[in-house]
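QA checklist item 7 of 12: single-chain prediction sanity check.
[x] sequence parsed
[x] length recorded as 385
[x] structure emitted
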Amino acid sequence: MHYLDAAATAPLRSAARNAMLKVLEGAPANASSVHTPGQLAKDVLRQARQQVATGLGARDAEVVFTSGGTEANNLLLKGVALAAPRGKHIVTSVVEHSSVRQTCAFLSKFAGFEITEIAVDAYGRVDEAAALAAIRDDTTLVSIGLANGEIGTVQSLERIGQAAQASGAVMHTDAVQAAAALPVDFGTGSWPGSFVDAMSVASHKFGGPQGAGALLLRSGIPLEPLIHGGGQESGQRSGTENIAALAGFGAAVATLMPQAGTRAQSLMTQRDTLVSRVLQEVPGAQLTGHPTERVPNHASFVVEGVSGESLLVDLDVAGIAASSGSACSAGKKDPSDVLLAMGYSPDLAVTALRFTFADPLEESAFQQLMDRVLQALASHTAPVR
């Protein structure tokens, strides 16, 4: 099976598996306990935090461990909105992950926040001028994702982030889809850290286990915790930490990020080959998202006149695991909100197809994969009327 659904979950890396097994086989204790096993668990937790911080250019104290990207987004949006809001206004976009859009809807319904959703162009890029104009004196938060998981488009957020920070608002980016594929750095002098105050990431996008993630948060930003209790994570996220999962998370980040730049170049080369062949050889195929300003391991299409669901089944039979878009919307037959916001018709939007690489492939394996993908697509398409 060729696995091309890394944007949903990347395969578990051996370094992550080994780190988890070491914890599990050692009878893991509670990191809050004062006895020797507890202190050993605390050492594992400290190392994982350091690995995530180092890999993503943050300080150890800026890493708040969560159960994943969804919780990190909820924690930041609700936590900042409820802690010390300077007003009741949030700026976001129409193409955000559901964990951002639904959290904003919650804050609108139950806390009286006004939500401004910025439109996007045909490539899925946020309208920068509209975003800048939307930031007001009572804007508490600006939250725009660094990259979109359905179409791969990477946003240009520097001016928006700088404007948000200059106004006194908190600038947050959901980097779940970007952080594992690009050389992302939370450092204040680096990209995108120079213009964001908070960033969400998820373990399973790096090849760590599911059920772990982190919110990277600048010190001094007031945050009301979602989960109250024993005061773990410096009081920002209570609950006994999942030591084994966090060990795997840290190991995956430590394995992946030192080679992020060269890995991105290799992924980009193979992605562009796939895009070129699909557009040339598959009747009715159109690339979705920006052709160049996109995540390097991400290729997404709509294919006129086909059933997206049956196409995925045929690809699976051919030994290719792909998807139609966000795994968080799996099972829904409605057209993608992201594609509709970009101007695609509902009939075309339901044909969405996404291929995302976990890692660059050896050339022979890549060529074999290309042949199988094109054969599966060719058997399912016909000349456009």
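[x] summary fact logged: The chain is about 40% helix and 15% strand.
[ ] second reviewer sign-off
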